Amino acid sequence: xxxxxxxxxxxxxxxxxxxxxxxxxxxxxxxxxxxxxxxxxxxxxxxxxxxxxxxxxxxxxxxxxxxxxxxxxxxxxxxxxxxxxxxxxxxxxxxxxxxxxxxxxxxxxxxxxxxxxxxxxxxxxxxxxxxxxxxxxxxxxxxxxxxxxxxxxxxxxxxxxxxxxxxxxxxxxxxxxxxxxxxxxxxxxxxxxxxxxxxxxxxxxxxxxxxxxxxxxxxxxxxxxxxxxxxxxxxxxxxxxxxxxxxxxxxxxxxxxxxxxxxxxxxxxxxxxxxxxxxxxxxxxxxxxxxxxxxxxxxxxxxxxxxxxxxxxxxxxxxxxxxxxxxxxxxxxxxxxxxxxxxxxxxxxxxxxxxxxxxxxxxxxxxxxxxxxxxxxxxxxxxxxxxxxxxxxxxxxxxxxxxxxxxxxxxxxxxxxxxxxxxxxxxxxx
Length: 430
Ligand code: SDX
Hints:
Blueprint: E1 6-11, E2 14-22, E3 28-30, H1 35-39, E4 59-62, E5 67-70, E6 73-74, H2 84-93, H3 99-111, H4 117-120, H5 132-146, H6 156-181, H7 195-204, H8 215-227, H9 235-244, H10 250-262, H11 269-281, H12 287-295, H13 316-332, H14 337-350, H15 353-357, H16 364-375, H17 382-403
Antiparallel strand pairs: 1-2, 2-3, 4-5, 5-6
Helix pairs in contact: 2-17, 3-6, 5-6, 5-10, 6-7, 6-17, 8-13, 8-16, 8-17, 9-10, 9-17, 10-17, 11-14, 11-16, 13-16
Bound molecules: s-citryldethia Coenzyme A (SDX).
The site of s-citryldethia Coenzyme A has 21 residues, from helix 16.
């Protein structure tokens, strides 16, 4: 079916034509940019479930078919020798890097892995049990105090420099926040190690004992980060775009994205899933009770790690993470009862009419925590791991908007439902 060129909208006696735009995968959008000027009306779409905020060439999702592609490449093709830094470059620059380009980018990441010494003292200012996402957001913002020249970008090299700093240092910040909470000395980055191995070194080495990541762990964490790298206009990416639309700098925009990702309905779900599975394991909650509560509107309980605004089929990332969690546990010889509970819960939910009717499937957060637990990353760091993975996506989306000369500041409208004209009442008459 060929898409018509325009949609006709009739309000009362007035009919107007609204242009249609079509994406490369056949998605159709109604361009309403002239709607208010022509009719005085605005659209009303709380949570933007039916609203396209931009065009983008970075990530394609088909929620009905469970398809996810980065710059056209299906995510399952990254499973063979997964390289997070290669995918980060792909997302930001729109194609796979050549050998020398990847080498150059890796060298920049190595050169910028350390924090400015003055930033290390910031950690002492946080309470020992401070939430790592609060520290991450604060420290990314603080980076704009030390890299103030990254306000605007003139060319690819400047973007690559800023991306290298952010992607490299977010790993150091995460590791340092873990070390501080556990009263451990900060471990400086080791320039001989690649991205994931260096992160695990900063997390788990001691001055007298180097942590060497097993190949399977390194591979699993590279794949984990790749699967979290971008997801088109999700809540935190939209936040990064909205903040960036005011021409706020890249660091301030990504720090805002950390805040949005923190919520349990979004990236924070990977922590909530483990809490839920722990409650089932400790006997505080049975799987059946879980499903019962999830179906009871008044319980306020949701089956965490299930459901998705876009996927009405399996989240392709959940499928890969489920298989990966099995593989990592076997390789490390780790028995995690939570994996079995998760599998039972999934099986029960997928047979339950409530979940079937609402097309609720496991999402990226349902199995991701099992892998992180097996590696020894504490649950309070899980959403930080999601943020480390998502950072290249935020940078690529911020850059796509920054380079688009038609970008205007994001400023939605509203439908006012408050008081009509009201006079001020002096205190003596209240
Ligand atoms: C991420 O957008 C992205 O791309 C996000 C993400 C990314 O990579 O950036 O994929 C990462 O955030 C994954 C989602 C992680 N969150 C969770 O696992 C939290 C649990 N899930 C739900 O809160 C919910 O499914 C959302 C938030 C993910 C989606 O919410 P929507 O699209 O607003 O859906 P909804 O709340 O309107 O639900 C529709 C129906 C409702 O029932 P009815 O009113 O139709 O009777 O489904 C029900 C909901 O009550 N429902 C659930 C449920 N999720 C939806 N019921 C029980 N348990 C759930 N998990």
